[in-house]
Specification:
The structure is a homohexamer. Helices cover about 30% and strands about 20% of the residues of chain A. Chain A is an alpha/beta fold and about 250 residues long.
Chain lengths: ~250, ~250, ~250, ~250, ~250, ~250
């Protein structure tokens, strides 16, 4: 009864303020089998230590991409949604009252996408959600990472030694678990006041490339892109932009 | 991958802030065939003469009913979603730049629901949208109406004789087209400043029962319900609450 | 340098838009020793299963009571802040990434207030916070409760048998722990759609008095107050109004 | 080029979201000469001791009345704008950096309206603005008052003896100046926490009739209206509803 | 009674938060006769295909320019309101329920301004409003255009061949009608995702100069200004900045 | 009971959404004696001639700095709160209904801070507040100033000769009073429409260095910093950034 199955290709048979809201106006297909790209949401804020609410992030990203997407990239002229089969596979059924159970649910959700051969494109959600996303994707070998953020998120603990999982610790845990290769990791745009030397220590000691904001402006956009390509190399790489997490398989 | 197909019966396998948003958390089934109740949206504000934006109404009603519904009625103890097969059949593909084409699209959308044997439950949208909803439902005989509103919406014209279709005229048009039976129509809660005597004249001259707000408080809730039952009688009746339009077939 | 120590008695030596913000403009005294009433905040939303954000509740209640309080009650003519020594003792240091640790921190905070001989007056925070507040207050004998709410919050579990602590379960847990006396408990204003029969079953089966919203309007304010006094009797009683929790020792 | 001069009589030759915004869609006539009613704004918050911003009140009242007025009263069937000649005469040119100069500007503005023989209908603005409005209107004899408010606004001073003019003192000043007759004054709806006994003392000691909120509900709307008519009698009477001040000459 | 007639020259005899709101604090003169510049509003969103509400644009632009204008340009030192006679001539009386009637009303409004010899300066409103503005201004010969926007607005149709007038088509219609000279048209700042090749095709095929955002940054502000002067030349030229449309006659 | 006394050093023993709100999470010490830096608020908008509300500025700055501060500067690696003893000394008790009394209260408040040997760091509040802050700080000799703003705030009068104290005049008054040395004053970022030549005349005639926005972009950040150091020299200097006023003693 609607044109939802056409995805963003036919933007006007249904006006943009109508219809069921999905990422990029893609069809909603709960089963990732047969997809090239599985777009999904991680409505999670269990790891937030300050102002929460990122559980509402996926719904808001759906609304924004549903209302404003057009199918062709202005510079390359390519139509990404014609190059691959993509769908909105829904949200991880987060457990709002248990952090570890939520991490397990996220891991199971992405394991299923990975097993189906699809590349996940996820909207969060707080950054701790990256850890259980990485687990199934990197179970065979560690992945590299291109990480855009103000903070490194490689702290050890925040409240005490008992509590090692929050929005500041996902990438130290990932290195410790052997699923993130720090030598193929680049952290871009790090800035702002710090708790102390430990803000950068773990990243630098383990060989991550850290581009602080001052170096970013010295290198310029093209220089940073070149450096990211050099560090990440040809292996599979996780791309994380703030709370909007993305994975693009490169080989 | 989600529990969407369970509808509001299992509210917690997916937290309420997760998942694709549908009316009452019902499954999204674009085809009304086989449904008892087809819940749908009419994202329309083509007839609005003051502040527009009701095109965003259905999306907002989806969000509210998705987040807050629980399946059992507290007074009757009944579970409406177990008594009938209901689904979210999506939105009418409104034409935002042509009023008459939009009215035709609304009419076609509800004709298909009616042909499938389902009862429509629609969220608007401006009140002019009631006119093309009534057309297919009343093509065999006029229907009655229980109408909650501040205004009668039985004006003849607003801007000039050329423009007879706006948010103040749907029910005069419906009477003229023979699809609304004024003698089985009750208008409840009429109040506020008026343009003049014509605000009530058409309704009263054609035999509608008008309960202005002062009489409403005199009769009380039970008295008004009794009067509505008396006026509407046993025939098929359209129920309209402000901009949220509902149809419940009674016979 | 400011008049903060005068509390609400001298409202104008500092205009209401100036100064450090405390509950009711009371002095901030972190130590409850010597106080009659210890006003405090429980910035907690670890038990929320829908829209979170109640962690910001205490700060907002401080702002509202700071800006708008005047010291004399209009009906009784009494000045509560002259009848007892009250202070703002600060907030419970909630652990935002661990629910059970947060419950322990709340319990310890209120145990200290109770040991000092002060009556706590707490602003939440989600309703699960009532459970660890009750524990130290009722360690010698169960307390009664006057509870204003739309829901009974006496569910057993929500997500599964593994997760028994959320914003819908505090008062079943409290009865199970022997710290809440259901026969001295009254729940007032229960209303709205339900998950099923279990919404009221535990409360009624254990002897709580439940006044649903229809009965509330039948009894009227004075009738409800009389019924609350009859049920709660003379023993120590916990008063809970939605998310704003209050304790007033009666004997 | 617009229909502004027709006022609220022809609401649709210009849609309600168009045109220059005036009170009730009336014509803007800076000169009150020849008017029966001069509608005007007092964009003043110089007397506010808490949260300011009432300087924006008149503009907001213009917007609301411009967008929503219809010319006929639903109960009486009368068209007030056909019974008298009314216009929007603009705003008092308040001095935002000097309170006393603002009071003089308000007084001069209303003196001119009064001299023209028009009855002022003013939108404020903080309540201190009532004092300089009353001065020219009552220069020949004191006026009565029907005053709807939560507070009596008959305090003597707030910050110290030096500062006697703020939003809590206008009607004590008016009685002291002999321009308000306390025996023909009724204060309706007084409620909320108080600073102390002086909140009501001046009003009661000087013979004002004070209807606190509990008595209001006992008397009911008709009883309060009768009492207001009895107290105010037949003389000229100032009507003040919160911050929206109105004057209606009765004889 | 106010200083409205002085316009922006005397900004402080009435504080900026007071008085009837007009564009730039100019006097409201409904008749354009004798004016050099006629500032006006086009409260129109009949051509909007996504989120509407631009009908409220003129009122908001009035508020912003009323509150913040000062009469002298900081770089040139010139006082534009002393160089010419300008006034707020009000809004086009848009027909909110008929698109073509609205276009005719806009055309008639600007024909009258043009006949009076005034240059219009218009605040919209959606971009389709530019088409009926251009018609009277270009009835003798086509005009050039300097157009700042993200999109070219030279599409042919959006919903189907039946509906050729919306917010994406005004300048194709204008070229077809012979009122816009594409060879004297420059479109500046074009950017963002596209529907396909047709986004630029009509503009380029007809000889418009299109400066996409990447070229904009290469040329710099001075380079773009020079290119705009070269393309537009000496003839009469329409200047359009997003939804804020302006016309400045150059010869 | 809280860790407030530790200030920003231990950010997580209390989560950032909990606790009494102070500037930078510093302890609240009303007495400036013994402090190196006294952080305080000036909740003042008595000098505002347009949209008021800056009286709420200090409370909002407290909230922002409380929630987001971390103790170490990312570029220098220094921990300012370990280099000096700082505290939140509260707000000036502004008189909201008398401008001159407010100026005296501000002066007395900063005189006490100055007498205690502490450097004040103040959050406003409207810019007129800078005048009474400067008076005690400069009573022995005039100070220099580094001033970031769109306007020079060196006007003589705004409404008339009678009213010389508002948000546009503080620095002319300061020069006239001999407490601000114009030759050691630099005004950075001046821009926007002007009332006339007098906007810059006083500043330039008295030897202030004015960097308008165009020159700012020519010089670049490092060039502007060097020029500021050159102009201000080694003497005591007041630093003012918009409404957020700061003083840093340099010798």
């Amino acid at each position: 009864m609607t044109d939802q199955d056409e995805g963003p290709r036919n933007i006007f048979s249904m006006p943009r303020f109508g219809g069921i809201v999905t990422f990029f106006r893609l069809p909603h297909l709960p089963d990732p089998e047969g997809l090239d790209v599985a777009v999904c949401g991680v409505p999670f804020d269990g790891g937030i230590t300050n102002r929460n609410g990122t559980r509402h992030g996926p719904r808001q990203v759906r609304e924004m991409t549903h209302n404003h997407i057009r199918p062709v990239h202005p510079t390359t002229g390519r139509s990404p949604f014609e190059l691959c089969r993509a769908a909105d596979v829904g949200d991880v059924p987060i457990n709002p009252i248990d952090l570890q159970d939520s991490l397990e649910r996220i891991e199971a959700f992405f394991a299923r996408i990975h097993a189906a051969g699809a590349v996940p494109l996820a909207a969060g959600g707080d950054h701790l959600g990256s850890l259980p996303i990485l687990r199934p994707l990197a179970k065979d070998r560690p992945v590299g990472m291109v990480h855009f953020d103000a903070h490194t998120d490689t702290y050890d603990t925040v409240f005490s030694d008992k509590f090692k999982y929050d929005n500041g610790t996902p990438f130290r845990r990932a290195v410790e678990e052997g699923i993130l290769d720090p030598k193929r990791t680049i952290q871009i745009g790090i800035r702002g006041p710090r708790f102390g030397e430990e803000d950068l220590a773990f990243s630098l000691d383990n060989g991550m490339r850290v581009i602080e904001i001052d170096e970013y402006f010295e290198l310029g956009n093209q220089g940073v892109i070149a450096e990211a390509r050099r560090v990440a190399g040809d292996g599979p790489t996780y791309i994380s932009a703030m709370c909007s997490m993305m994975m693009m398989k490169k080989s």
